Amino acid sequence: MTEAQRAVRAMARTARLMERTLPARLSMADFRMLSAIGDGEARASRLARRLALGKPAVSATVESLVKRGLVTRTAHGSDQRAVDLALTAEGVATLADADAALCRTVERIADATAGPDATVRVLADLGPALDTLLAAREACTPSPAGRA
């Protein structure tokens, strides 16, 4: 088995462990959406690009989060088609609880490695690397007909 294959399998197992770490009412999709909105992504179209999801998946997740009182939707200024998303106070608290639980899990995993601090640094570097890859992929993807 190659190092890359071992890494893939470890990441898959890690993803499952992270899912189990989340508070009972959150899925990993919910967490990704809450964290992106919490980071300032207020528009569904930008969420779809950032999270590499289709707009229907973003819409369904946002609808669920709104119904649970974790996210609000408000009209965006003069563009009546656009909607801004924001976390409610409960959404902020839920995200903070999830972040804390997930950080504890990452720290426990890292502590089981030969270099815990280096492991956390490498994992943290994955975020910007993923952003770069997604941006490059988006730049190469032709826009649908009739859209700029």
Q: What is the helix content?
A: 55-70%
Number of helices, where a helix is a run of at least 4 consecutive DSSP H or I residues: 6
CATH architecture group name:
Orthogonal Bundle
Q: Provide the CATH topology.
A: Arc Repressor Mutant, subunit A
Structural class: mainly alpha
Number of strands: 2
Query: Could you tell me the radius of gyration in angstroms?
Result: 17 Å
SSE succession = HHHHEEHH
**Total domain units:** 1
Q: What gross morphology would you assign? A: globular
How many angstroms does the end-to-end distance come to? 44 Å
Which CATH class is shown? Answer: Mainly Alpha
The pLDDT mean sits at 88
Domain HTH marR-type: 1-135
GO molecular function, one term: DNA binding
Protein name: HTH marR-type domain-containing protein
Keywords: DNA-binding, Transcription, Transcription regulation
Describe this structure in words.
Strands 1-2 form a two-stranded antiparallel ribbon. Helix content is 67%, strand content 10%. Helix 2 crosses helix 4 (55-67) and helix 5 (89-111) packs across helix 6. The model has no long low-confidence stretch (mean pLDDT 88). A hairpin with a 2-residue loop joins strand 1 and strand 2. The protein is mainly alpha-helical and 148 residues long. It has helices at residues 3-21, 28-38, 44-51, 55-67, 89-111, 116-140, and strands at residues 71-76, 79-87. The chain has a single domain, classed as Arc Repressor Mutant, subunit A (Orthogonal Bundle), CATH 1.10.10. The longest helix is centred in the C-terminal third of the chain and has 25 residues, at 116-140. The protein is built from 6 helices and 2 strands; from the N terminus they run H-H-H-H-E-E-H-H. It comes from Microbacterium mangrovi. Pfam families: MarR_2. One of its GO terms (biological process) is response to stress.
